Amino acid sequence: MFELAIGAAGAGPDSALARVVTVFGSARPHCAYLFANRRANRMKVLIHDGLGIWLCARRLHQGKFRWAELWRGDQLALTPEQLQALVQGLPWQRIGPNGAISLV
User: Is the Cβ–Cβ distance between 2 and 80 less than 8 Å?
Assistant: First the structure.
């Protein structure tokens, strides 16, 4: 499982890490921290892999990332399949165990 922390967009890895530490007290190993712009068409994911951090960015040319009302300051536990769906702009809430779609 990945723990997902959602907050405002950060500029680079250092400022994103500083935001995570300010909001959550620390960046925990094996956790992903998601930052999005207001329009929800761009996001960055800060990951602490246990050795260091890395920052990945994604932009959607159509549509929005799907976290709706959950996107400010909440923490979610996601499976790897749900995280993959989220960063691809897919409805991650519909992905169940073993990648099975649970809602239509």
Answer: yes
